[in-house]
Structure formats: structure tokens, C-alpha cells
Write a structure and sequence with these properties.
alpha+beta, 60s Ribosomal Protein L30, Chain: A
Length: 129
């Protein structure tokens, strides 16, 4: 039997796909793609600033659901439809990771193949200490 545990959280899903929000093995947590999905409606709003805010809120919820905290996050990958979203990303980044001496690494890439209104997706790795 595997010691891997699928992490599911209320209000977030990958639709009909059989993909958990995150997976944990021991003290390591890796998320799947985290969009700016509204936890109440299950939809991704058209407003990109709202998507960024929801994506970071979903990140925190998923990390907590895995038994970790944002202080355990060591890297966040950010895929965006447009680099013009950088200001919104930085606003949320500073909100969720305010300590300039304790922030995870981050890498932003442009991705042109999102479906629907999706314009951002986060992925994170956490090591629980």
C-alpha cells in the first residue's frame, strides 16, 4: 500500500477529472494546477484580478488541507495567459508571503492554452517541517 495521500478540499476541483487538489507523501506536498475557481460557484470569473486573488486563496486552502502552512511552501510555479498580470500577482504575493526574508521561490511562465476564461494557474511544493 502506498503512503501517498490524495488531498481534496471543499470548493475546489478539477471538474470531472480524477485529479486531487494535491498529493502528500511524508512531509512533502505537491499541488496540482490551482486556478482562480470561485469556491461557491465552481466557476472561474472573467475578471483576471479576481482570478489571481482566488487562485492564491485556493492555494492557501489546499496547503492547509494537506496539513501544511504557507510557511512550508518552498516554490510556487505561476502560469499566466499574459505577463500583464504581474502587478496583480505581486499584490497577492505580498499579501500571502509578507516577510521579505521568508518567501518561496517563484517562476512565472506564459501559457496560451488555458480553456475558458482561465488566465492563471498556480502549482506549489511544500515541505512540512
Amino acid at each position: 500500500m502506498s503512503n501517498r495521500k490524495s488531498i481534496e478540499v471543499e470548493g475546489f476541483s478539477h471538474g470531472a477529472n480524477p485529479i486531487p487538489a494535491a498529493s502528500r507523501v511524508g512531509n512533502i506536498v505537491m499541488t496540482g494546477g490551482i486556478s482562480g475557481q470561485d469556491p461557491v460557484t465552481g466557476k472561474v470569473p472573467e475578471d483576471q484580478a479576481a482570478q489571481v486573488a482566488l487562485a492564491f486563496a485556493n492555494l492557501e486552502k489546499i496547503i492547509k488541507g494537506a496539513g501544511a502552512t504557507l510557511a512550508d511552501v518552498v516554490k510556487v510555479g505561476v502560469s499566466v495567459k499574459s505577463f500583464a498580470m504581474r502587478d496583480e500577482i505581486n499584490t497577492q504575493w505580498l499579501k500571502y508571503f509578507p516577510d521579505e526574508h521568508s518567501r518561496p521561490a517563484r517562476h512565472v511562465t506564459q501559457y496560451d492554452h488555458f480553456g475558458g476564461t482561465t488566465a492563471i494557474q498556480l502549482e506549489a511544493t511544500a515541505v512540512i517541517t
